[in-house]
Design brief:
The protein is α+β, with helices and mostly antiparallel strands and 503 residues long. The protein has 14 helices and 20 strands. The radius of gyration is 26 Å and the shape is globular.
Length: 503
């Protein structure tokens, strides 16, 4: 099968360096890029720009590896720059530790023809040839690496269409989804955020012929973010302004709200900021939100409900991942049946609860603190695409029992009290009903998170999430102390789900 090919005309050194920058933003551990070109074709310019982008250091010294054969750089993704000109056989790559470098970084290879038949089939080849006064870059390959390279070049094309084609791109942040974010900078303009949000790839059916994401109502395209962002902005919530969008490809150019978070220098919560966030939720929960929101003319997003099926499929993550991790085997049919029976009885109690726009992940990683501003404008909100129509108590529980931060009981109480005070000040408010819903939603969310954090370790190779488990168990115990959750508390206790244990 013929490999796909991409071509780019590079008029000068600046455009060659820009291609290196675009390639750097696509790299992941295990990737191999092979550079071919005659002397003076621009390989050095491209390689230097790629490595400096990964290092985020425009002045980094990047010597040629002609004599050392390989130069290694401890960058965001470790990169190893090989020059194979002096190799007498491809087998000598073993002596250079080539396979070991790919286990923990990426490789950039000059003179790849010296390793003919040795490089991975997923290697992306970049050929640079003279073309008039400039150069032609021809990129070919197959597999995930080439797909990421192609998407990064498409992102540059999106920037060009938005008038930001000459912008400098730098990695900003990724999350637990396929989404990623970059900071783009252009002379004379405030920095922007470039959001890369590919369409969600649905997994296999898990229940009633539906994939997990469909049952849990996870956003499947960037249109959800755009629609919800626009609705929140119109309602006075400080979410990013959208300067340019390509809904088909999943690219957005966004206002950069800042980078100051909710934590102090020691990683602890700043109580006053959490109280301000609780007051923002109270303001939002006092508004009526449409269930249909427009992303673009003719493109409407129907905000899904946080229904019983979604709540249960999320809570099931504890049974599917956490239970096997602590017991050494899958949950028994009896345990699963009892779990569902107890949860269903508890969810019945949500009937009559206040439902509103529920952002779903309203916690410290997704809230920016802008202390120079006043009132609720001090809070910048990001990551809103998975919003649902659900219990108002859910986002309050997400905030007050922040999964990434140890919220002492007194800080949780201050956050909750700030919300309650703001709701009472706005008019009639059923505090007792809200507190019961708060406990139920806190129990549901933290049960889900116990499962997610184990899944991230077992399935995705991210063991650092396990350090959060003691905190999540503590939050669960707090939620289960509410009298309405006595049956669920007894069930969890009987099956050892609240015990401290090392995984």
């Amino acid at each position: 099968m013929t490999e796909p090919v991409l071509e780019r005309l590079l008029a000068d050194e600046t455009q060659t360096a820009r291609l290196g920058e675009d390639l750097a933003l696509a790299l992941r551990v295990g990737d191999v890029l092979a550079l071919k070109g005659d002397l003076g074709a621009g390989k050095t310019t491209l390689a230097r720009a790629l490595i400096r982008t990964l290092a985020d250091d425009a002045g980094l010294e990047v010597p040629s590896p002609t004599f050392t054969l390989v130069q290694s750089y401890d960058t965001r993704i470790p990169v190893h720059h090989f020059d194979l000109y002096r190799l007498s056989s491809a087998a000598e790559l073993d002596e250079l530790g080539f396979e070991e470098t790919l286990a923990q970084g990426a490789a950039l290879i000059e003179w790849p023809e010296r390793a003919d038949g040795y490089l991975p089939r997923t290697t992306v080849l970049i050929e640079l040839v003279q073309h008039g006064e400039g150069r032609l870059a021809r990129l070919s390959g197959q597999g995930a690496t080439f797909d990421r390279v192609a998407r990064s070049l498409a992102m540059r094309g999106f920037l060009e269409s938005a008038g930001w084609g000459q912008a400098r791109r730098r990695y900003f942040i990724g999350d637990a989804s396929p989404r990623s974010y970059e900071i783009v900078s252009l002379a004379g303009e405030a920095p922007r955020v470039l959001m890369n949000s590919p369409r969600l790839v649905l997994g296999p059916p898990v229940r009633d012929g539906k994939p997990y994401a469909v049952i849990a109502h996870t956003a499947q395209s960037v249109s959800a973010f755009v629609a919800i962002d626009r609705a929140l902005l119109a309602a006075g919530v400080a979410v990013p302004r959208i300067d340019a969008q390509d809904l088909g490809q999943g690219f957005l150019l966004l206002e950069h709200l800042g980078s100051e978070g909710f934590l102090d220098g020691n990683g602890g919560p700043v109580a006053e900021r959490y109280e301000a966030a609780a007051e923002l939720l109270a303001m939002m929960h006092g508004k009526a939100w449409p269930h249909r929101m427009e992303a673009a003319p003719g493109v409407v997003h129907d905000v899904p409900p946080f229904d019983r099926d979604a709540m249960l499929i999320e809570a099931d993550l504890l049974i599917d991942w956490y239970v096997p991790a602590i017991s050494g085997g899958p949950a028994s049919d009896a345990l699963r049946s009892g779990y569902h029976k107890t949860w269903n009885a508890l969810l019945n109690r949500l009937q009559g609860s206040e439902y509103t726009l529920m952002l779903r992940d309203f916690h410290s990683p997704n809230i920016i603190w802008r202390g120079e501003r006043s009132g609720l404008d001090r809070l910048g909100i990001v990551d809103v695409q998975d919003a649902l129509i659900g219990p108002a108590a859910y986002d309050v529980a997400s905030l007050a029992m922040d999964a990434r931060v140890t919220m002492a009981p007194e800080i949780e109480k201050r956050t909750l009290d700030a919300y309650l005070a703001a709701r009472h000040a706005a008019g009639d408010f059923d505090e007792a009903g809200f507190l019961e819903a708060y406990a139920i939603m806190a129990a549901q969310r933290n049960s889900k998170i116990l499962g997610i954090f184990v899944r991230l370790e077992k399935r995705d190779g991210k063991p650092y999430y396990l350090k959060h488990l003691p905190r999540i168990r503590d939050y669960l115990r707090r939620a289960l102390s509410h009298p309405a959750l006595a049956d669920l508390r007894d069930f969890y206790s009987a099956h050892g789900l609240l015990e401290e244990r090392a995984l």
